[in-house]
Amino acid sequence: MDELSEKKVPFFFMTDFLCENILVYTESELDNSGLLIDFQSFSNAKQKDDLTTKTDFKSFPETVEEFKKGFVHVQNNLRLGNSYLTNYTRKTEIATNLSLEEIFYHSQAKYKVLSEDFFVFFSPETFVKIINGKIYTYPMKGTIDASLDNAAEVLKNDPKEKAEHYTVVDLLRNDLSMVADDVTVDKFQFIDFLKTKQKDLFAMSSEISGNLKPEFRGKTGSIMQKLLPAGSILGAPKPKTLEIILEAEGFNRGFYTGVSGWFDGENLDSCVMIRFIEKENGKLYFKSGGGITHMSKLEDEYEEMKNKIYVPIH
């Protein structure tokens, strides 16, 4: 990635959660990659006709008792001071009459990728952008059912959601400081609206920026090596929280919560790979979750995990 970006060669990259599998494709190599990409800054997807089939989408979440096992492990570690925030995710079987390709073409999101007969995601969350030597990140933490009374203000002022958001903003500000100078929080706790077939949601984000240090200019790979895994889907502090996640979740996240991005020869646009459907042994699974703090309530976190199981087709 460093070599390509220093030569100003456009490329697409994708890394799994643990940064063990890193895929890099130049624009010409994408033709034979089995990947379809639709970012705001780049797309290799063809225009498709309107979806004529009525969308049928069902999920089969685990019980709250099953969810509780990992949740208790996470909270025990939080109380011991091993973590301040842990992102706990689950894997839910789903059934739909749509193919992964149909979901890719007809879902609406800032970032979409289809890996042929493997997975599709439709992410609303930017990881980092690099524009003219300046780096930006947009941690997204905190969601709420948009139909609730005064939902946006409730989300902004909920003590648990605020604590979660403050922690992630502080973590990402610290992470960005490894590769950039003059790091500042430009926008704090702004609200995005996410429309879905099942339920409309509000999500809370912030914008953090800095000026790339001279030694990282033109070195996309070195920047990612410093910043990954993404703090918003891991927690803080990173090394110990990763241990807790691997113990609590009991499944391999794979490319879910990894990062993918497009480098256009000058600038970079990348996203966190969330809102993720994966095919495994002929079945489909939706991976979702949320941040746990010592203030988190079991039932609320269980509901948030289920609320995030949707396809943005409407």
The total beta strand count reads 17
Q: Any low-confidence stretches, pLDDT <50, length ≥5?
A: none
- Biggest sheet architecture: 9 strands, antiparallel
Quote the distance from N terminus to C terminus.
37 Å
Total count of helical runs of at least 4 residues: 8
Task: Provide a quick synopsis of the model.
This protein is an alpha+beta fold. The chain has helices at about 1-5, 65-80, 100-105, 150-155, 160-175, 220-225, 240-250, 300-305; strands at about 10-15, 20-25, 35-40, 55-60, 85-95, 110-115, 120-125, 125-130, 135, 140-145, 180-195, 200-210, 235, 260-265, 270, 275-280, 285-290. Helix 2 runs antiparallel to helix 7.
How does this model look, in words?
The chain is of the alpha+beta class. Helix content is 26%, strand content 35%. It has 8 helices and 17 strands. The chain has helices at residues 2-6, 64-79, 100-106, 151-157, 159-176, 220-227, 238-249, 298-307; strands spanning 11-15, 22-26, 35-38, 57-60, 85-96, 111-115, 119-123, 126-131, 134-137, 140-145, 180-194, 201-212, 235-236, 259-263, 268-272, 276-280, 283-292. Strands 1, 2, 8, 9, 10, 11, 12, 14 and 15 form a 9-stranded antiparallel β-sheet that branches. Strands 3, 4, 5, 6, 7, 13, 16 and 17 form an 8-stranded antiparallel β-sheet that branches. A hairpin with a 4-residue loop joins strand 14 (259-263) and strand 15. Helix 2 packs antiparallel against helix 7. It is globular, with a radius of gyration of 19 Å. The relative contact order is 0.23. The mean pLDDT is 93.
